[in-house]
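Chapter review. Work through the record for Multiheme c-type cytochrome before attempting the end-of-chapter questions.
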Amino acid sequence: MRLFMFFRHGFCLLAGLSAMAFLGGCDPRREPVENFLEKHWQDPLPPQGAPPAAFSALEASLSVQSCAQCHARQFEGWKSSLHSKAMGPGIGWQLKLMSQEQGNACLRCHAPLAEQKALVALDQAWPNAPQHPIPEYVSRDLAHQGLTCASCHVRGHQRFGPPPRIEPSEGGPHGGFRVSKAFEDSRFCATCHQFPEDGPQIAGKLQEDTYRQWLASRFARGGAGKQTCQSCHMPDRQHLWRGIHDPTMTRKAIDVKLSIADLGGGNHEAVAEILNSGAGHHFPTYMVAKVELLFVRRDADGSVHEFGRQMIGWQVDTPITREIADTRIPAGEKRVFRQAFSAPENRDWEIEVILRVSPGEHYERIYRDSLQQANRLPFDAIELLRHALANVEGARYELMRIRAEKLP
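Structure tokens for Multiheme c-type cytochrome:
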């Protein structure tokens, strides 16, 4: 049954301190990062439990809107990020087809809190859905909020965060917070952006391998040139997590040069050199996004002649079982794309390469393929699927145009 093949491969479609915070335990700032992360990202995360009796309803709440009351800047950034859309229609229609075990494997990163998983189980009528009433500190829409503030910052109703820039005064809300340098370490993000060695692979390559790609780059080296996931994707601690969906971020990742080689007899070759100068991982890192190179010749009379298309990206078939091509560019490396063309000898013309980005190209193919089999889908999944397809199609954009003049 081809429609459901990709579920079996583990790939789900689709980053101040009160002195009182340290009473009764060791200083977590001195705890090794790996020890902190092992506890912080348990799989699955345990429920928060009953909030402290002294907490107000606002302090106990896990909702992003509650956090926004004091952390408005972080909330505004998060609201515009893909983290806030982690439980959109792209995963919503798939959950209609999954068992609870399959769904929880995806929710581990898309909605990791135990309370979120419980709400999804209720929505999907899964067999192990909780029977008891929803706690007051859990808003009914918490599961649909995606990767929330609490996903990263709350465990057992205690708050955690990075070392403060300014020492806060005592007596703040929710008993202050515990500090860990793990929040400034790339390994914090690797929890969701790196599969283990025995994780799902295609052609011997892990489907999620961003952290290891970063480790192999110059950005992972110590010294002034080091760039962590956070310093690049959360500049000045902004909760933005911009990536290939954002044109400005993508332009910073690459340098493009276009030249022309004369092959004689009116035959030529356009040579596009793409250097991954700014991304600390492959460009693009996953199989989902693709960057298309469109080669065109523009004549003096205004006519435009397309003479080739090439792709940057890791192309895999829709069941996610077979690699078609891998033209991703590792960090710091260059890839050359050559395209032959002919042109009039005695007329003016110029060559242009247009870079177009499809951030969800792999999803587009899967969604279209699935809609061809809509008669095999639950009725309530079809509208979500159509919405998901419209979202990824609407995310396409033109990145840049580079011109090379005719050879002298």
